[in-house]
Amino acid sequence: IVVLTFVITANAAIQSGEKEGFSYSFDDETGVLTLLGTGEYVAPSGLYNIARYQAKKVIIGEGITTLPSDCFRYLKAEGESILEEVSIPSSLTTISKNLFRDCTNLTKVNIPEDSNITTINENAFFGCSSLTQIAFNDNLTTIGNAAFRKCLSLVSADMGNSITSMGIDVFHTCVKLESVVLGGTYTKLSN
């Protein structure tokens, strides 16, 4: 069962939907998309159609552990990415394949100090050309192929001290990259 709700206030509309215990709300006035639920997020139908072209900020609610691949890849208006900021909960364990791919205006990724992210899958931040810095704690163990490829403005990346596996071309074409913290005991390290 999918429930879509529209609440119209003076100058703004709040749109929402629900599916299998997961929900979202989108505020037209602020451009904030909030995702709620527990476990591996199942996107309610309507989420992509409503928020795709308008969301400037995404708040991923506490309790969500994983989001679908490509979830924010197509948040674009007239072919241009408009997503600027993402807040990640401590419950998130995996950054899915292509999750933020080509979010060219993404400048801020809020990751809590008590983050439980263990895996960044391939192409997760590929083409996030406005992102200047990113930091993870020591729970991060795996970084997939081209995870930060073409992050043209990335200056610093702190991947923590527990990396055991890292794919190829992780920081390929990060032309401004000055500092990378990357510690751990590698069992798999590609070029």
What is the number of helices? 1
- In order across it, which strands form the biggest sheet? 1-2-3-4-6-10-12
Q: Could you give a short account of the major beta sheet?
A: 7 strands, mixed
**Structure summary, number of beta strands:** 19
What is the CA-based Rg, rounded? 17 Å
Show unreliable segments: 1-11
The quaternary organization reads as: single chain
The coarse overall form would be globular
Strand content: 25-35%
| Computed structural class | mainly beta
List keywords for this structure.
single chain, 191 residues, mainly beta, seven-stranded mixed beta sheet, five-stranded parallel beta sheet, disordered N terminus
Overall description:
The chain is globular. The protein is built from one helix and 19 strands. It has one helix at residues 47-51; strands at residues 3-8, 13-19, 22-27, 32-36, 39-40, 57-60, 64-66, 76-77, 80-81, 85-87, 94-95, 108-110, 119-120, 133-135, 142-143, 156-158, 165-166, 179-181, 188-189. The model is unreliable at 1-11 (pLDDT under 50). A seven-stranded mixed sheet has the order 1-2-3-4-6-10-12. A five-stranded parallel sheet has the order 11-13-15-17-19, with no helix packed on it. A hairpin with a 4-residue loop joins strand 3 (22-27) and strand 4 (32-36).
